[in-house]
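Lesson 9: reading folded outputs for more than one chain in a single document. The general rule is that every protein is listed as its sequence immediately followed by its structure tokens, and records are never interleaved. Here is the first one.
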Amino acid sequence: MTNSIAITGKCDIMEKPYGLTMRSVVKNEEGKILVLRRHPKSRTNPHKWELPGGKIEKGEFFDEALVREIKEETDLDVKVGDFCEAVQDDYPHKRTVQLIMYAKDIEGEVKISEEHDDWMWASVNEIKSLDITSSLEKIIKKRNEKL
């Protein structure tokens, strides 16, 4: 007797490409979380608050991408800590899977890039009162408001 599985039916063809995005929970000494407000002319989530991070470039390791993106967006030097969460977002032109990691060994002073127009250190309750991205909202719900 062999163990086999028959696959029947029609598979959905992926209509939109997937992208992988890395984000990080960066905390200060008081335990507040760094959030950035996207530029109002941003293609996705204009003027919404999000965690720092961004897209992985082709051939790049995800931990290296996260360190690079945090440096580009905030001028902070960090090391990648433990896994926090994963969420998916669907946009008209693409789908993204976001891996959220904790940052550790944070050094430097925050200086944001032109991708964002504001930043703040905030508690989870303060973050919930902001106009945040759907992915950040999903992360907060999945983590039971504990980041």
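And here is the second record, again sequence then tokens.
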Amino acid sequence: MLHIYTGNGKGKTTASVGLAVRAAGAGLRVYFLQLMKDGTSSEIAMLEQLGVSVGAARSCCKFSVSMNAEEKAAASAEHSAILNEVGRLLADGAADLIVLDEFFCALSAGLLDRELAERVILGYSGDTELVLTGRGACSPFTDSADYITEMLPHKHPYDRGIPARKGIEF
């Protein structure tokens, strides 16, 4: 099934990590792949210890609006490689759960090939659970989703000028 965690509130990645932990605990083959992130978020080391296969776009070490053309090209190439790997995993039946963290962020930033994304995600009809996270979930992905959960911020420390904290927000 296709799961989407979206919205402007905190919790999209956290929810997908929780699902990955649950699936790994049940003995499932889990892949947690981060777009728009360089793989240094605090959850990555623990997921690896649980036997989750992890990957990230190592060149994404800043927000897309701060990237120059060369950095955007590198991020886009890494994102395409990750999507191609997802396509291979799906075709081979090698995964029970695949999380594409910050999928919608990469898509809206123009750092993800939309045609490739649609072909890989929407062209799949097997048994692997697919999770897409990020703000701004959009059609045709939302049209095909089995689950859509929207995180809504009612209150957040960032609004008071408190920056993201290691172990809590990243």
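What the second record shows: The longest strand covers residues 2-6.
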